[in-house]
Specification:
Layout lengths: L1 H8 L1 E8 L5 H11 L12 H5 L4 H13 L2 E6 L2 E6 L9 H6 L5 E7 L6 H12 L4 E6 L8 H12 L2 E4 L1 E4 L7 E4 L4 E4 L14 E2 L6 H7 L1 H17 L5 H5 L3 E6 L8 H11 L6 E2 L4 E2 L7 E9 L8 E9 L2 E2 L2 E5 L4 E5 L3 E3 L4 E3 L2 E2 L4 E6 L8 E3 L11 E3 L3 E7 L5 H13 L4 E5 L6 E4 L3 H14 L3 E4 L5 E7 L3 H7 L4 E3 L5 E5 L2 H10 L4 E3 L1 E3 L2
Parallel strand pairs: 1-3, 1-4, 4-5, 5-11, 6-11
Antiparallel strand pairs: 2-3, 7-8, 8-9, 9-10, 12-13, 14-15, 14-23, 15-22, 16-21, 17-18, 17-23, 19-20, 24-33, 25-27, 25-28, 26-27, 26-30, 29-31, 29-32, 30-31
Helix pairs in contact: 8-9, 12-13
The protein binds guanosine-5',3'-tetraphosphate (G4P).
Guanosine-5',3'-tetraphosphate binds next to helix 2.
Length: 528
């Protein structure tokens, strides 16, 4: 089927990772402008809605925004690009991690003043687990930041990945003049909007770094400094190697300023050329190639509908192979049932459109009433299929839920079950008590959970702190039965009924590991 090959080859599905304030929103907006998906800058997100999280309306609004901007699809130079938003901007949730399991590559934004920051590090760990190719954009070159060599060193040391610059900055901050394209030997100049500058607006080709035109255009001091840097790079840096990029062990680096729309087009042009098209996906029994004619897909995200009166939820399904057509009957493998997908939606920058057909790498949203969970696999074929690689991470924050109105316990159970199926929080039930223990990757999730319990399930509850610092999934081992008996009071079940050890202190965890050498404890769990 030639069309399938063509559609796969021209698709790019990616996410942007960054620490808050590095410029993800600004870059997203500029990319969408190039794709013609939005006409006005400033349309992607209202910052105010992101910050205000303490009242119910704001949470609703934020969810509204995150539903419509979850997947931004645009076309550029004949490529179909799906940009998946990595949510949890001010805070962190598992959702953020899971979205990264649905992309084929990422763009990492780094603030030139701050270098690599904590959130980027965490997100990078997820990329490393899957060897996701990463392209880097060092942003805010119009500010006085760290030296470019120092920034590359930071990426290499902190993130453990080779950094191979494709452009190199000339000056920075007020003296930022532009970039030198190391492969094409082109100079592109930075002329901020409204500023008077003698620098040419168009790209200038030089014969190499020895070209005297370079001195003429940027001055001898900057020209010499560029020559020195490039010489240093030739000796100590990494030359760009596409295979190493595609394996996730090297990141090509661009320098620019998203706000001034400088360096963004080079990034996009290089991205569509080099970034991988939809890659094969691992299922339990085999690898699924995107070029297989039979349709397959997996759900990586579930989100409640914006209208709290309806319990509808949207499951976000990534197409892994074949063609999807509206009204298609597919096998829901976890339930062992066929379902018909009539109401799929595709997400544009602002609107959703009904989908008639979609291809590998595309994301479709399916309305459902709770029959679809994160990790569910679908296919036209009935042969058993279970995509792997959608993890749950051991939460780092915990609260016990105290129900204020004991007559609402059924609603509490239902609410927590549904919220945990969406992946916002994890719920644990200790074996020896009737408590609900909530775990989250970021503490903001507790606030959101409480507001939604009240708003959607009419449950009044409060939180109590408790002395748990982490959990470990108990995956087996010959010492497991002995451990479960001895530590029964510290064991709970997660939403799937899998047993976890509630870790009270890291010291205690070490002690357990020493006392039970054949106990398999895990920080990550794959969804079944
Ligand atoms: P985020 O989504 O990663 O959190 O970052 P966002 O794009 O919202 O950018 C964070 C701040 O950094 C914004 O300023 C934005 O204007 C600024 N910024 C982004 N790119 C550049 C750049 O290339 N150069 C400079 N100098 N600044 C940049 P803000 O004042 O927090 O918000 P706003 O009021 O401008 O929206």
């Amino acid at each position: 089927m030639k069309q399938l090959h063509r559609e796969v080859a021209r698709r790019r599905t990616f996410g942007i990772i960054s620490h808050p304030d590095a410029g993800k929103t600004t870059l997203t907006e500029k990319l969408l402008l190039f794709g013609g998906a939005i006409r006005l800058a400033g349309a992607v997100k209202s910052k105010k809605a992101q910050h205000a999280t303490s009242d119910w309306m704001a949470v609703e609004r934020e969810r509204g925004i995150s539903v419509t901007s979850s997947v931004m699809k645009f076309e550029y130079e004949g490529y179909e690009i799906n940009l998946l938003d990595t949510p949890g901007h001010q805070d962190f949730s598992e959702d953020t991690y899971r979205v990264l399991t649905a992309v084929d590559s990422v763009v990492m934004v780094i603030d030139s003043v701050k270098g690599v920051e904590t959130q980027t590090k965490k997100l990078m760990e997820v990329c490393r687990m899957r060897s996701t190719p990463i392209m880097t954009f060092i942003n805010k070159m119009d500010r006085d930041g760290r030296s470019p060599l120092e920034l590359l060193d930071d990426i290499e040391q902190t993130l453990g990945i080779e950094a191979a610059p494709l452009t190199w900055p000339i000056g920075m901050g007020k003296d930022f003049k532009g970039v030198y394209d190391l492969r094409k030997h082109e100079l592109r100049f930075f002329v901020p909007a409204g500023a008077k500058s003698a620098l040419p607006k168009e790209t200038v080709l030089v014969s190499g770094l020895d070209d005297p035109l370079l001195d003429e255009l940027v001055g001898s001091a900057d020209a010499d400094s560029l020559r020195r840097d490039v010489e240093l790079l030739a000796g100590a840096g990494y030359p760009f190697d596409i295979d190493r990029y595609l394996q996730g062990s090297q990141t090509p680096v661009f320098f620019g300023s998203a706000l001034s729309n400088f360096g963004v087009q080079e990034l996009l042009d290089t991205f569509v050329l080099l970034a991988p098209s939809p890659r094969p996906r691992a299922a339990e029994s085999r690898m699924v190639s995107p070029l297989e004619e039979g349709f397959t897909g997996m759900v990586f995200k579930v989100q409640a509908n914006m209208d709290p009166a309806h319990r509808d939820r949207i499951a976000f399904l990534r197409i892994c192979s074949g063609r999807f057509v509206r009204g298609m009957k597919v096998r829901h493998h976890r339930l062992g049932k066929d379902i018909q997908i009539n109401n799929a939606t595709i997400f544009m920058a602002q609107d959703r459109e009904g989908v008639e057909q979609a291809w590998p790498g595309d994301i479709i949203g399916i309305q459902n009433h709770g029959t679809i969970k994160i990790g569910d696999s679908f296919s036209t074929d009935h042969a058993p299929l279970k995509f792997t690689g959608i993890p749950s991470f051991a939460p780092e924050h915990f609260r016990r839920v105290r129900l204020l109105d004991p007559l609402r316990s059924k609603q509490l159970e239902k609410g927590l079950k549904q919220l945990s199926e969406e992946g916002a929080i994890q719920v644990f039930r200790p074996l020896l008590s009737a408590d609900y223990i909530l775990g989250a990757v970021g503490p903001l999730q507790f606030e959101v959970t409480m507001l939604r319990l009240k708003g959607e399930y009419k449950v009044d509850a409060a939180y109590e702190g408790l002395g748990i610092c982490s959990v470990r999934w108990i995956a087996g081992g010959s010492d497991a039965p002995r451990f479960l008996e001895r530590y029964a009071a510290d064991i709970a079940k997660d939403i799937d009924g899998d047993k976890v050890y509630l870790v009270k202190s890291l010291w205690g965890l070490e002690h357990v590991q020493e006392s039970f050498p054949n106990l398999d404890l895990r920080t990550v769990k794959e969804h079944r």
